């Protein structure tokens, strides 16, 4: 197959050239005397991406799943009651992990295509006068359905109930792409991974922790130390404080991380968020022009990092994903679990721009036609490009 | 600017990943004992790309312009009469070089947008009973106007006139992308460069030479040795015959060349040509859907490697190129010389596929709209993608 | 600082060029339809490196420490009795992890510079008639002291005692560099990581598991599921069986792993081991020529992957490591824990050859002199190179 | 073969990692609106490496041989008398080129192992009252014999004779490595290439030209335009003045050039020269310790970029080069032409440091022994490393 393969899954995302260059390196000694100078800058700047102003961010050689586990095992004990909502494959997996790690999970199941039910959470918290609930979990962006939840709303519910539970956020497919404000929103443990908004290959799990959660983790009366070691806060803190790691870190990815954080800070986080919002809106216009629906039920749930498109009755979305790959060298995301066969997903996060999205939409359009979905050729990509050009910042504004 | 820059100039072209990987190398000694094993395979296989069955191909550290100069200075003398046609910036530059190198150039100027006038050539050759014409030059693909000429037709004209002149072909933007048959068509000197169909960075000039031309070059009574050294055949032959080079070769590009020739041979040259034809036709359908015209006057001149699109009166094509770059990170080709301001060019050669071309057309469409050309959003890219999917080889056929 | 930095720590090790090229890649979708073809080959071939003939190898996005944890948490329960020896920083850390994960560790402390006390182990196993000991842990190569232990001897002790305990081996700095035979030696869980003999950047933890251990892990009556998720066998088995992973794998490193396994298999494991033995012996000759001692007490403990050199009284080995780095851009390993300040380490594993080791020894020699150790200039490197050339396989033998 | 290949030929030289990273790039359009910003900085900074304060430097996609040809064909006519000395393969090749390009070459042959005979040159210039000599050629560093000539001395001779001849310098293996001062020494045309002191892959030829020579080139009454086109100054000037090139430049190498010039300027040219002098002296001490002689006859001729070592009677230096490559993966330089079989060469220029040179000397030492030269193991490398550590700048001085 000739030409570049096109990657539009909602992670791993495309790696920017400067990041790729930074990772094209000979091996280095992560105990070299100069290494702490490098790591300290990294620890400082990754906090900026999470907008974590007082705590610290752990960088694990792991996937985001590992960071989930670290969040739980360092701050909660088996038997602890936690409040979670389930509305997609990734919120489901987090519930599953919490249960397997022995937590007493109060799961609120809501329709896939919606997100965290803030009112229900508010109600449960208000009623929990004894503060049995130790933690509230929010999947900020459900990658499986393209749904974004209201983290600030959950914080408001906690505050309204004067509830001391810790707030956990899965930001794997949101941090660095859509608005996230750890300190302002009072998020205690925010999880992310290298392969989404951070535009790196997979292999790093990030866990950004508030001072409050760090204090909880230190409280040996409160949590069980017998179930962690690799993901332990105390080991990581002790080593990080000297600029090193408790075991060999993924040094190549750390060099890439430096380059990717530089890109994010240089573009400016707010500009990054605006870019994602604009690219996402173009995709949504294409979906509308195709006369298809998103899995997300209402505009308030629309995700600016991934759109899950519902295929018509009689069409298997798995066939769409396979056809896009085989006929057009384009990787789209499939439907997972409950929505398997029913949706396909277009990732629009990370190192993307208008022309790349037009390519993705063109591939999707050819594929839909190949698979028997009657869409008008050019309708979707035309709607998107028309939006992109109209919504472009005028050059004069850029210069200002 | 975020996201990948899009490259759709008619050279340099996109570099395939395996080629890029092959060039990501530590430096090596081009006099190592094992080097000839590498170079001999390369010399053998590059001939296959030119379909040169009996001669040899020189690989110069130079651009294609250097290979032009080598072709002239090794086989012709100042004062020699040569027949050339001029119908675009690159055929113009070759004429200019021939004149500056002292040849007596019989230039046939034809309208830009047409190509080599085979009938006129046939006439001149037929009338040249004394064989004063030593060489006939053909620009197979005029990159400035998107016009492909009929090399086989010129050969037929030579044969019909029983004329012994050597046949020179500028194949810079054609070899490895559209049909070229050195031995079958009796081409004596075929010039190309690394940065077009060979999908490499610029830096190598190729000159594929027939046995007849090699004999002419050896004939010291016939050509002046005082005007060349760097581009000399004899030095190159002597060194190449031992597997080495007369001066330091561009070793990194040679490793890339190995990888790019492997890709071409693996896909199969005829499949490569068919891919180019199909991608080009999609672009032409887009141009038609925009209600614009190609610079190429008739279908017989249409190039499958580059399309030059004429902009409407009152529009400056230079603005289109600049706008595509600034607003959409997309490099298109501008108009050169006589057609400056009047055409913009879309390269569709090398490591390209359907989705990449849809991206290019989307960028062009947004840009046309930004520059005041009234095209219907989605019309061009829609026409192209509809063609691409209809003309796709069915998967079943591929498997067979 | 000019020139290449020299890396001679006992991991991370130098990355071969073909591995580096393989990792110079655009991002890819690890759920692509073609991905299982790639992963299945990898799963099959990594078993060959461990010489695991009937079980399977898990590849975690983690360091080797993560694979340690996976080994323990999938096959043992808090409270289970295990037999371990401690004689260096890495065997110490494994003991520490086992204790923190709640195991009842029977630690045999032996002198640093020696290794697993096979006789003591044999004695304990023979006396454990009730089979309270569930597992025996062996650090095959103690990276901190340059000591290799006798895994086959421990297996023999288990067999002699007809003891059913599982055998765990830390092969982080041995597998792929020195002889290791999982199935033949009856090793149940062998841990390794990407950044040593596998010659990759850090970021992958390997856990090669025997069928017996897989059965134990499946036995839900036997082990506690509440303390793992990320490192769970069952999740990994279920996903791997389809060619995928339970969470996003480190795709870039997996491509590198493919290339590194290819290198190991192409050289032949036995040749790889012989190369390591020969390079190590040269280093030991240099140490002898310097009139210094190894930390390893006797030849039977000598490691072929790393040599820990004891510095004379009054010399701080940390100063040696820092001086080598600052003055000669050379990374050597320092002394850890009990031997901090007392030894420096030269790694001689992975992608190394004679000339590289001579460079390392030259750097060490300059550094020793700079730090006040009286060694004769050229003595160590001279002894090594003399050995290297004498012990070289004659070219004729190679050709045969 | 395992481990890194060692490259110690006097070019191509080792490519620094940052240069390699810079060349790991997708293709780019060399006509992009932003390109001139990049090229202008490059044109300005490359002058600094030549210490050309008023003229300009041309960057050709060619080897240094091409820059030789450009120097001659733009400023001299066939028949012009030039003064040259011959004392090695590269000075020989330049003479050969001058003759083949039709110059009337007054060749002074001196013993190989010596350099430009300044006194003889002074004498010829003084006697040339009619100024028939149009140009004086100096090979600053004869790469074949490891001899550096006195450029400033030749300038003094020209000045003493008040002779207007242009001064041409072959600085291929000297510029960027040893002292060169174009403007101060009144050098008119200085040739270099990318693959030596510039630490790049081969593929760029540099020609740094004084204002005086630029004026000569413009004087159409003085030089014949019919023998050049590719290497023409006027085309290059016209295009470079707009930030572009007359034909496709080697864009990947230009990005590498930016990185390599940055490295040179960051280290500081004088520091670079001092580093080369020091590394070279270590190699010479090794040669002395081996009881071997350099090809260079006297210290005043010693080159700081390459040492040609004379092998004892009865030893074939070609065998040494082959043995080093086959047995130790080390590329050394062989003897060329008159000194074929008699010398082998160690390159010590570009991206090199002490440890790398100790590796090279170790490889040479093993090879000499393998080939029957009786040297004491460790003697050469020991002498070198002793010198390196003694001559090291104290860290405190560096900090100052």
UniProtKB/TrEMBL annotation, chains A, B, C, D:
Organism annotation: Manganibacter manganicus
Keywords: Aminotransferase, Pyridoxal phosphate, Transferase
Name of the protein: Serine--glyoxylate aminotransferase
Keyword field contains Transferase: yes
Enzyme Commission number: 2.6.1.45
N6-(pyridoxal phosphate)lysine found at: 196
GO molecular function: alanine-glyoxylate transaminase activity; L-serine-glyoxylate transaminase activity; L-serine-pyruvate transaminase activity
Enzyme class label: transferase
Cofactor(s) of this protein: pyridoxal 5'-phosphate
GO terms, biological process: glycine biosynthetic process, by transamination of glyoxylate
Domain Aminotransferase class V: 44-297
Reactions catalysed: glyoxylate + L-serine = 3-hydroxypyruvate + glycine
InterPro entries: Aminotrans_V_dom (IPR000192), Aminotrans_V_PyrdxlP_BS (IPR020578), PyrdxlP-dep_Trfase (IPR015424), PyrdxlP-dep_Trfase_major (IPR015421), PyrdxlP-dep_Trfase_small (IPR015422), SP_NH2Trfase/AEP_transaminase (IPR024169)
Family: Belongs to the class-V pyridoxal-phosphate-dependent aminotransferase family.
Pathway: One-carbon metabolism; formaldehyde assimilation via serine pathway
Sites where the protein binds substrate: 345
